[in-house]
Amino acid sequence: MTLLTRKLEVIIQAASQKYAVISLLGPRQSGKTTLVKKVFKNYTYLNFEDPELRQYASTDPKGFMLQYKGPMIIDEAQYVPEIFSYIQIAVDNNPQKGQYILTGSHNFLLLEYISQSLAGRIAIFNLLPFSIEELKSTKFFKDNYEDYLYNGFYPRIYNDGLEAGEWLKNYIQTYVERDVRKIINIGDLAKFQQFLKLCAGRTGQLVNFSEIGNELGLSYHTVQTWLSILEASFIVFRLPPYYKNFNKRIIKSHKLYFYDTGLAAYLLGIKKAEDVMFHFAKGALFENLIIAELIKFKVNSGQSTELWFWRDSTGNEVDCILEDNQKIKAIEIKSGKTIASDFFKGLDYFNHLHSDTQSYIIYGGSQIQNRSSSKIVSWKDIHLIY
Questions:
Q1: Rounded average pLDDT over 65-69
Q2: Parallel/antiparallel/unpaired status of strands 375-378 and 100-104
Q3: Which CATH number characterizes residue 91's domain?
Q4: Residue 236, C-beta contacts closer than 8 angstroms, at least 6 positions apart
Q5: Nearest to 322 by CA among 335, 337, 332, 312
Q6: Which domain covers residue 354, as residue numbers?
Q7: Within a domain: 1
Q8: Span 103-130, pLDDT tens digits
Q9: Of 111, 126, 141, which one is at a domain's C-terminal end?
């Protein structure tokens, strides 16, 4: 098994010299435990997935904290909310940095407990599955993006040489049957799986709660709740519209994406990487790949993930907008491997409305070109955007 170096390792190590508590959030199987065990080798490791340990910590948190002293890693910390107040007391009594490393796979649960007890004492980071940049200098790097659309980026698929479709099938089943039920009581898990597949079919599209609800026979509120669950467990995210300095004709709905394209491809019924070439969702999955990679770059640098898309009511659109040092960068994403003139249409329109914009096209080919109006970047070199 080959363990890849994660971009976040150095940043978390540095933060542990400044904060008493470090929190690492992210989806299940994104490599959180592997990373913290590697960076904090001499720490006591405790996992609240263990029922006996979880019961001990929840029923007698004071006794638990007296027994397990010294710097420690607590995996899936959100399962024992009682422990957070005692960690607060411990770090207030002892100002030593890097005492506790907390991981979690349920974003809103862990963040709620952190805000209640550990505000100002903790540095929070997110770890997503591998990025293209992390794979680029390894044996796992692929020349065809279709391989990444199908396989996705979960570390175990690469580290253990697993077949992506089979692993992702088990991942979804475990997630639905275990994690979802821990967050909310859903009686009809089969319908929730239908909901997941419906979300995959809407990758890169505007979110319409009523439309999804009508198709599945669910209420508007239920769709909102279920989507929040997917977001909290790092399955999907919503990209907000960019509306600064524009009038009311700008679309206000969010667009839907998956953190991992392999998961979306599995839910769409794609059986192998070659099938992506001719699948109706190829363009949407490629767009998803690039948006997710832009987010990973920010996350892996310890930065906030402020990205947007832009679309007006007449259909003019730019796939991604980001602000870097108060400079607006407009990005169009095209799965085609040959540069075509229509790639520039959305960017040209946006540039007329908003002057002094840096424009980029990320496409499925391998060239890098500096055009008069836009810079063309290969999907392999997304880091050049930043």
A1: 90
A2: unpaired
A3: 3.40.50.300
A4: 199, 227, 230, 256, 257, 258, 259
A5: 332
A6: 132-385
A7: no
A8: 998 776 678 778 788 888 999 999 999 9
A9: 126
Asked if 286 and 231 sit in the same domain, the reply is yes
In this predicted structure, what is the pLDDT of residue 157?
96
More confident site: 250 or 56 = 56
Residues 111 and 155 in one domain: no
Q: In this predicted model, what pLDDT tens digit does every residue of 184-233 receive, in sequence order?
A: 777 788 889 999 999 999 999 999 999 999 999 999 999 999 999 899 88
Q: Per residue in 246-277, pLDDT tens?
A: 665 677 899 999 999 999 999 999 999 899 99
If one counts the domains in the chain, the total is 2
Burial class (CB in 10 A: 0-12, 13-18, 19+), 317: middle
Give the containing element (helix H, strand E) for 378.
Answer: strand 375-378
Domain boundary among 67, 98, 126: 126
pTM, full prediction? 0.93
Residues 74 and 95 in one domain: yes
Q: Quick check: 26 and 128 in contact, CB under 8 A? A: yes
Residues 218, 74 within the same domain: no
Where is pLDDT greater, at 306 or 72? 72
The DSSP code for 341 is G
H-run or E-run covering 13: helix 8-15
Q: What single letter denotes the amino acid at residue 19? A: Y
Write the pLDDT tens digit of every residue in 85-108: 999 999 999 989 999 999 998 776
Residue 377 bridge partners (DSSP):
362
Which DSSP state fits 380?
G
Distance CA 91, CA 351 (A): 51
Domain identity same for 175 and 297: yes
CB 129 within 8 A of CB 28: no
| Same-domain check for residues 262 and 144 | yes
DSSP string, 132-186: HHHHTTSTT--S-HHHHHHH---HHHHHTT--HHHHHHHHHHHIIIIIIHHHS--
Q: What is d(CA 239, CA 253) in angstroms, rounded to the nearest whole number?
A: 9
Residue 2 falls within a domain, yes or no?
A: no
The two tokens of residue 115 are 């805000």
